[in-house]
Amino acid sequence: MERYEEAVASFDKAIEFKPDFDLAWNNRGYALGFLERYEEAVASFDKAIEFKPDFDLAWNNRGYALGFLERYEEAVASFDKAIEFKPDDDWAWNNRGYALGFLERYEEAVASFDKAIEFKPDKHEALVNKGNVLVKLKRDGDAIEFYNRALNCIDPQWWEAWNKNQGLANISALKKEAAVKTSVYIPTPDEQGSSSKFHSEKLKQLQYYMMQQPSLFSDLSQAKKSYEEALEFLTFDKFPEEHLQFLQELLKVYSSDNPEKFQENLEKGTQQLEELNEEPKSEQERITLDSKLAAFNQMRVDILAQSKVPEKHIEALERAEIRKNICLAWLKEGSIYQPPTEEFEFKQTQKLLNPKTAVIYWHLSPIAITTFIIKHNEPLKILSPQLPSESQQKDSRPYFYQLQRFERWMQRWKKSYEDYCNAPYTDKQTTPWRKNMKSMLETLGEILEIKRIVQDNLQDVDNLILIPHRELHLLPLDYLFNEKDFIITYLPSFQIGLQLLESTSNSENTDSPKLVNIEMSLNNLLFTDIQSAALYHLYPSYGKFPNQTVTKTNLIEALGEYEGYFHFTGHGYHILENPIESALVLADTEKLTLGDIFECPELDLRKYQLICLSACETGVTSQEFSKERIIDEYVGLVSGFLAKGANHVVSTLWRVDERSTALLVIKFYQLLKQRQTPTIALRQAKDWLRQSTHQDLAKWYRDLAKELNEPQSKASLETEAEIIEDHIKKKKKEPTEVPYAHPYYSAGFILTGKPRTTG
Questions:
Q1: Domain of 431, in residue numbers
Q2: Dihedral of CA 95/100/106/110: which sign?
Q3: Does the residue 221 lie in any domain?
Q4: pTM of the predicted protein model
Q5: For 247-266, what is each residue's pLDDT tens digit?
Q6: CB-based contacts of 16: which residues, under 8 Å, 6+ apart?
Q7: Per mean pLDDT, which range of 148-157, 183-192, 504-513, 616-625 is the poorest?
Q8: Which of 436, 464, 492 is a domain's end point?
Q9: Helices 437-447 and 450-457, axial angle in degrees (round to 10)
Q10: Would you put residue 430 in left (φ > 0), alpha (ψ -120 to 50) or beta?
């Protein structure tokens, strides 16, 4: 019932009538613990012990509450008293070990967990806790044994509570080997409802583990056996969703060693998915199901793409594109942009191309990365991945090998970015994500074979359109093509590109576009103020709102009133499982969600040639997001603004420091003012920032100061120039040093939108 406040009141009444009622004092403390009032809980347990000094349960509960207060030494002493009065209390031994772990007394903790297991051999909590401590002691092999025992001991009916508290996630530290080695649990009929979820959680670990193996065939027979046994229990009739999820996993294994079974089961699974979709469901339930089981469609793309028949390659691209547009269409109810009434055809791609333009179109599945190369009036090409010499094994599959390398790389990228976000400001510059970014991006280019793509296919090309898929949307792919001076535009899909070509912007050809500037800075930052003054100077028809007044209502009104450019400096976030809730953060906890943008009929973004989302972190938006995998397709704020009619969107994949961001943004808008297209302006602004020396920047600061009218910004720019010149004079700075050459400062800025159709 969880009515803990009422419970406390009831125990208070009982104590009022019998002040020495030790059990009431204990239970009162227990209820207070659920209310997270731990100090009061400890006081209640103390009263229980006062009236019954050998009350082992009260001693145990007291130790537990002290643990929540991080008073671990006292907690251990309480558990010792509980054990003194009840030596076979497995809970007290387990809790004692847990507290010792926080004190980093790991050997003593192991001994405590051993006692808990001695008195209750199937105590999964103690088995998991011992495994965790063994990891701390660098005894990974022993830890695997105890995780494995825990998985086999747990009652499937209680898996959810177990997983919430410590559960299966603990195996992550050991590459999921325990899950691979765990035998499949076949439940009794009474257990089947909850066991299907438990079983899913156990084998979910194997999916991740297989991706970590240096060879595709590590533990392959165990994987196949586990999935096949799971499917014997998780029949389509009784557990249709779970059955199809596990069939997806089994297909990955079959794709490697049994093409006939792979094809047969892929057809079977696709048919079963169609049957499942015919059952009555809400629109949201249908979308969730389709996303969860997207691998069936993705693997059909792989079969077609790896065919020796060229016509099948075209069919593969068409199928991949149709799926993209289905994902985008889920957001578009009431949008200007609507899903195509006719299915996409390959010949439509030529509308986006000319002899100097090519498209690189990626598709990620559970078993392959497919790279399509589309050029003007040429046959469709598909990159056939090459294996490094040490991997030329007759059993290896190059597509899967490439995918494995990418998945491992992506996990490292996300983890290092998470560590960067958590680091103190003073340490950020020395974190591995910052220090190793250049080499990590070079490795990514090697994995995706960018040099080979350029050398073999793009020597006669000046303009590139990049269409990523899934996690590739989160990465600065244009940076990987930096050996040739390409003009690069991103697109979410061919279809959005085609619709942008057909639409017209009211402001595209105007000599004096207006600019709406929204700055949601949490502090008064020097260079944000300078940026604001510079934008006002460049665009006198300028709408700026104090950040404390920017609400959803007046932002939508402003976007309806102006046209031309919309510049937003502030935070944004992406909700992976429900993209419609992705949002720009406004004043007073308000936000402008993707749903708001789509649902507002008067908001016509075709009036906007450019939307610039500065500091919105559209690539990796949160630490929670960094732990998740994109199963189907990434649909974010950028796709939403384009789908609503905006011509171009500049976004930042990660948050860049305030100073370099302002420099790049000001230079970008200066180039726009000189009638450069957004695509060329962004490329030139990035090149300028990367190549500018200290000497160049000092001169630029002085030149900008002369142009501005706002006194504070003029003075600040003059001061910045003087500081640089003084440092050069005193040999503290080399005049030719380029302070913003590192990719951190510029590679995260990308432009998505209307491609160039002229050479």
A1: 319-464
A2: negative
A3: no
A4: 0.74
A5: 988 898 888 778 889 999 99
A6: none
A7: 183-192
A8: 464
A9: 50
A10: alpha
